Amino acid sequence: DTEVTQTPKHLVMGMTNKKSLKCEQHMGHRAMYWYKQKAKKPPELMFVYSYEKLSINESVPSRFSPECPNSSLLNLHLHALQPEDSALYLCASSDTPGQLYEQYFGPGTRLTVT
Amino acid sequence: TQLLEQSPQFLSIQEGENLTVYCNSSSVFSSLQWYRQEPGEGPVLLVTVVTGGEVKKLKRLTFQFGDARKDSSLHITAAQPGDTGLYLCAGFEDEKLTFGTGTRLTIIP
Q1: Which residue in the set B30, B45, B101 is minimally distant from A103, CB to CB?
Q2: A with B: how many residue pairs have Cβ under 8 Å apart?
Q3: B31 pairs with which residues across the strands?
Q4: pLDDT in tens, A48-84
Q5: Contact between B89 and B9 (Cβ < 8 Å)
């Protein structure tokens, strides 16, 4: 099973809402990632989790809060977002942190902030 | 910040034609990957190149990593409609993958 699943597929939220994005993989990968992709742009790295610990935060605003409850799950908690945060949020995983392996991407959550 | 510039940004060609996409950076990367992304999906890995000067072939796709490990190219022979998609190069350094600006390829039947 080489699948990374993400829920929900689509999310519309107001600027005062709190919501969470979920990502799951069962490949035994120990590195997990959150990316943000704006329309017609490449993915931009937000966070990296290595062995369930946050290892890289690319200066992401605190209204985005990642969480890794266990080695298979990755959450992204959203609070007080702005309309410019509307984007496709991609989760990915790879075998070993710090080493170049294939990153397996989920289909993404398309987020719209109103 | 390491930047990867891809050219062309958009490319629309007839089925059966050949094409080349370029990926250039001012920085050296320890390795480079090419991904393809289709609408509504995440990127899917096509190839990884790690040695300067390396050439890899994947059916009709040929990938080359520059000698100085700062640039790469993707050549497609006899393009088919199934090749349509967003092609992304990505450089790996300091535990991070940095994506290029992307090339949106459309193959017209």
Answers
A1: B45
A2: 51
A3: B92
A4: 999 999 999 999 999 999 999 999 999 999 999 999 9
A5: no
